Amino acid sequence: MATIAPLLAQIAALPAKDKPAAYRDLIAALFAPNSPHLAAIPANVDALLTEIVSDGGPGLVVARPVANDLVAAMVDATTVDTNTKRRLYEIVIDRLTPRLVSFEDPVALAREKLSAILEDEEEWTEAARMLMNIPMDTGHRQVTDEYKLRIYIHIVRLLLEDEDSVTAETYLNRAGFLIGPVHDPVLQLTYKMCHGRILDAKRKFLEASQKYLELSYAPQLHPDEKNLVLQKAVTCTVLAEAGPHRSRLLAQLYKDDRVHRLPQVFVSMVEKMYLGRILRTHEVSDFSETLAGHHLAKLADGSTVLDRAVIQHNLLSASRIYANISLAELGRLLGVDAAQAETTAARMITERRLLGHLDQIDGFLYFQTQGVLSSWDARVAALCGQVDDVVAAIQKRAAVPAATA
């Protein structure tokens, strides 16, 4: 096992002007094929870094470029495996961080590369922490807004893999201050995707669905990716609390031809919810298999977000069928007890997502027809249909070739 201690002693004895070239030659020799120093490369790198940052070392004028060259050589090295590189980056960070002001660039590069290795090993949070500690605004290192944005968005993506939406939102907010001036379409798209995922994780399903629906039209996305984003839009719409806002999103999805080309489980849920049909247990069970882990988390009452959404939807569907219904019968229809049915109905009535009133003495729920609103909606729908007919006629006319003279 060859040590570089004698070589370091020789370089230390050289005139100052000759030291930079000597250190460069040493670094090249460390990572050269068949180098005798490769067997002990971690110890040799540690010795080199210890030498250049010591009080008796070559000084910062020489030490800075040596540290930069050393980390660059690690990145490009093909003679060491990934596990060894991981150890080398850790040594760089350990040795240079105490003097970070003088060595920000090599430490930042080492953290980026170590984060990439951790990401490949699916150590998401540790990979994110590596990037979090990259110096950004110290005043000693000039970094562009685009670089900061790229790092912040990468941190967000890593944290979301471990479902840490709280910390991820902090870094998304930092990215939000930088996204405007940066015109990189990939960064813009990734930022929007992360924003949608955080809204989804925070159970702001209506906002998340709108964000996903917007992304599904992005020309930069591959068709398969557009379908996945559209599935997310459907999922968030289904999980959202029943009400007028969700009804508008359901209408938009139902009328989107792309939705009807998705897997049948998504098509079925959109169709049944839009048409106001009662959802059956097996349909809900099939849909639940497509959900992510955070969608299946238990709420305070022991139910899931999907359970709540289905109960509210079925309650609205019942309002289209019944003029009134006993709470006991409503509970059986919704698959819950009468008390939970009453609580759900009371909340939806209070929030004006359901028109009706409760008779708690007799245990009945009376539904109120929408009257004028229903008539207004019907007229709007008829007008939209007429506009569609006009557009179709214009398109048909434009498609007919001009008659020859």
Structure description:
The chain has helices spanning 5-12, 19-30, 41-53, 60-76, 82-96, 104-120, 124-132, 145-161, 165-176, 185-201, 205-215, 223-239, 244-254, 264-274, 281-288, 305-321, 327-334, 338-350, 372-399, and strands at residues 324-326, 356-359, 364-367. It has a domain at 1-124. Strand 2 (356-359) and strand 3 (364-367) form a beta hairpin. Helix 6 (104-120) packs antiparallel against helix 7 (124-132), helix 12 (223-239) crosses helix 14 (264-274) and helix 14 packs across helix 15 (281-288). The chain is elongated. Helix content is 64%, strand content 3%. The mean pLDDT is 87.
| Structural class label | mainly alpha
State the distance separating the first and last CA atoms.
93 Å
Unreliable stretches, pLDDT < 50, 5 or more residues?
A: none
The strand count comes to 3
Provide mean pLDDT, rounded.
Answer: 87
Please, how many helices? Answer: 19
| Helix content estimate | 55-70%
Strand fraction equals: under 5%
Cα radius of gyration in angstroms: 31 Å
Give the strand line-up of the largest sheet.
1-3-2
Largest pleated sheet: 3 strands, antiparallel
Order of helices and strands: HHHHHHHHHHHHHHHHEHHEEH
Which of globular, elongated, flat, extended, rod-shaped describes the shape? elongated
